[in-house]
Amino acid sequence: MTLEIAGDSGLFPERQVKTAAEVEALRKGNKASEAGFRIVTRTLAEARIRNGKLVHGGTILTAERLRALINHAVLDADASALHTIAAPGDQAVDNHCVGHGPIRAGELIVVDIFPRRIEDGYWGDMTRTYLKGRASDAQRHLVSTVRKAHKLAIDMIKPGVTGGKVHDAVQSFFDNQGYQTVRNSTAPKGFFHALGHGVGLEIHEEPFMRSGSAWKFRKGMVVTVEPGLYYHGLGGCRIEDVVHVVPGGCEMISRAPYQWEIP
Question: How many domains is the chain built from?
Answer without folding.
Answer: 1
